[in-house]
UniProtKB/TrEMBL annotation:
The chain crosses the membrane at residues 35-57, 69-92, 200-220. The keyword DNA-binding does not apply. Keywords: Amino-acid transport, Cell membrane, Membrane, Transmembrane, Transmembrane helix, Transport. The keyword Transmembrane applies. This is Cysteine ABC transporter permease. PANTHER family: L-CYSTINE TRANSPORT SYSTEM PERMEASE PROTEIN TCYL, MEMBRANE COMPONENT OF AMINO ACID ABC TRANSPORTER. PROSITE patterns: ABC_TM1. It comes from Oceanobacillus zhaokaii.
């Protein structure tokens, strides 16, 4: 009798767990669509623009441009992303500057992406042979035109793999936004877990969704890299 009742309890628990898994799937996916993915895309695009500007400042021979870029990159790379988020969302209100959760997350992630991606872009630009610059100058191109039409297209191909990895990492980093009240994917999992107390199931489910998103992005990255490789002389 004990064994029989124990089996019935196990089946019931498993059934309830499966129902919870299915019922929580839509809220988590909604959180991903409404916040995780937009937060990733907006931060990455703005971060790339900031990174390009910073990289140009880093390779500049002017100390007036180079020094601020060096300080910015060093400060962002030398501090945890979580601390940066807390400074913007919880720290700035103490000096009278209050920013909503979603914009705060965008600012923090943009600054973070800008610093790391700037080093990728800078290294990619420097990897282009100096002969490319010299050849452009000999046909009358200015340094700006040579950079835009000759150097940057070559540097872009080199920078695609590391930038793609940064983009995928950013998808996972957005889970930190849950700590400043952004109701993204992981925050949804936390809210449901707080009501049901089934933390393991819900956190594993959230991890599976993150993994699926990153897996799809990895496939896209592979396709892009193969297309770019077609233009490389073998």
């Amino acid at each position: 009798m004990y064994l029989q009742s124990n089996m019935i309890y196990t089946i019931t628990a498993n059934t309830e767990g499966w129902e919870l898994f299915v019922n929580s799937l839509l809220p988590m996916i909604t959180g991903a669509i409404e916040y995780t993915i937009p937060l990733t895309l907006i931060s990455f695009v703005l971060g790339l623009l900031l990174a390009l500007l910073t990289a140009m400042m880093r390779i500049s021979k002017s100390k007036l441009l180079n020094a601020p870029a060096v300080v910015y990159v060093s400060a962002i790379r030398g501090t945890p992303l979580l601390v940066q988020l807390f400074i913007i969302f919880y720290g700035l209100p103490t000096i009278g500057l209050t920013i909503d959760p979603f914009p705060s997350a965008i600012i923090a992630f943009t600054l973070n992406v800008g610093a790391y991606a700037s080093e990728i872009i800078r290294a990619s630009i420097l990897s282009v042979p100096k002969g490319q610059w010299e050849a452009a100058m000999t046909i009358g191109m200015s340094r700006t035109t040579a950079l835009r039409r000759i150097v940057l297209p070559q540097a872009a191909r080199v920078s695609v793999p590391p930038l793609s990895n940064s983009f995928i990492s950013l998808v996972k980093d957005t889970s930190l936004a849950s700590l400043i009240l952004v109701t993204e994917l992981f925050r949804k999992a936390q809210e449901i877990a707080a009501r049901t107390y089934d933390f393991l199931l819900l956190y594993v489910e959230a991890a599976l969704i993150y993994w699926l998103i990153c897996f799809i992005l990895s496939l896209v990255q592979t396709v892009i890299e193969r297309r770019l490789d077609r233009y490389v002389a073998k």
